Recover the amino acids of this structure.
């Protein structure tokens, strides 16, 4: 069993490292305002979950760049299911960083969205 744990640990570490590199690159990307299209309450990702807080809000969004529509998803920090179900509503604006060379590659950063969304952002 310990061999499986090692592989899982390595996989989580690699995923976290890749995510951090992507977020670092996104810091310099242009900022655009989009809008939330829909909400889902989802099981929290391993990196976000904590004891007792096993759910995240996943919000689908869209934005436009040069007249073209693009979209993506943003997740909240982990929370209890009841809180997630209560907060997942409306169509608030969301501040999005996008890669100017490929606007399909976008990131929503916590520091860009401190008060406009009804939840704290799990950057990604």
């Amino acid at each position: 069993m310990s061999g499986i744990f090692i592989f899982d640990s390595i996989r989580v570490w690699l995923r976290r490292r890749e995510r951090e590199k992507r977020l670092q690159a996104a810091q310099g990307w242009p900022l655009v305002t989009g809008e939330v299209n829909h909400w889902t309450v989802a099981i929290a990702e391993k990196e976000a979950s904590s004891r007792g807080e096993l759910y995240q809000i996943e919000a689908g969004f869209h934005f436009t760049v040069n007249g073209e529509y693009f979209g993506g998803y943003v997740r909240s920090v982990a929370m209890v299911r009841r809180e997630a179900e209560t907060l997942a509503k409306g169509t608030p604006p969301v501040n999005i960083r996008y890669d100017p060379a490929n606007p399909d590659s976008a990131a929503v950063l916590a520091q860009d969205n401190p008060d406009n969304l009804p939840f704290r952002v799990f950057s990604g």
